[in-house]
Amino acid sequence: MSIRNLGGLRQQGVPFRKLSDAELQDKMRKGLCFRCDEKFGLQHVCRNKQLHMLLLSEDEITELGEFQHHTTTTKDTLKDTRQVLQLSLCTMVGLTTKKSWKLWGKIGEETVIVLLDCGASHNFISNNLIGRCGLQTMATPSYVVEVGDGRKIECQGKCADFILEIQRLQIQQEIFIFEIGGADIMLGLEWLVSLGKVKADFGNLKLTIGGGDQQHMVIGDPALSTTATSFKKLIHELQQGDQGFLVDMVQNHEVVDSTACTKEVEQVLASYSEVFQEF
Q: Of 99, 131, 125, 123, which is closest to residue 113 (Cα–Cα)?
């Protein structure tokens, strides 16, 4: 390997010399140029400007190529090859959204709550249901479930040898094991894609599968829907005559009087005394 100076027909300034760590730190402390002893700044033009070219022999080029290939292969090997599944935060905690709804289903004689979610990449089943129905599980390589809040949860295992029946429709698929709130089984895009032609009416909680004589309709149960709402919308619903529970959650490690209420809570209780009456 050789280095040629291309600073012109004649070498200008001082020859190139690698500075030691101590010399570099000293020049930085004094604010000097690394190539000359002049003060360094935005307008500084070094008087020792040089251009160097690195020449490699054929053997050295071959060795460099092999090194780069080895480095690239090593990086690819270190990449996470685990399967990644995606799930929204609302679905994880059992809330329904504009693209999901719940309905009743059955596995044998066991009644289960099924969540249909177009925003989830795969199907999921809870460990609780597996225990209740005595279902068999199968070992799998570990996989990662990405939740909507950015968390990545490592899981393992599938459940396959059972039939889920919802409204005279029988479903048999491999379902990943993952704990979800407010439901026993969640069917996502993996199941929807396997159905072929489907039409979803999210406003009326209806899923139409197929067409013609082979058409089948799956209808959600509004009573099972649980959605997040704002305090303003809650008050509006109460004004329309609906009923509900008002829970005031505070974080306090001190022992407080359980009968005490904040002024805001007292005002709401007074305004809707008929709704929040004691039983």
A: 125
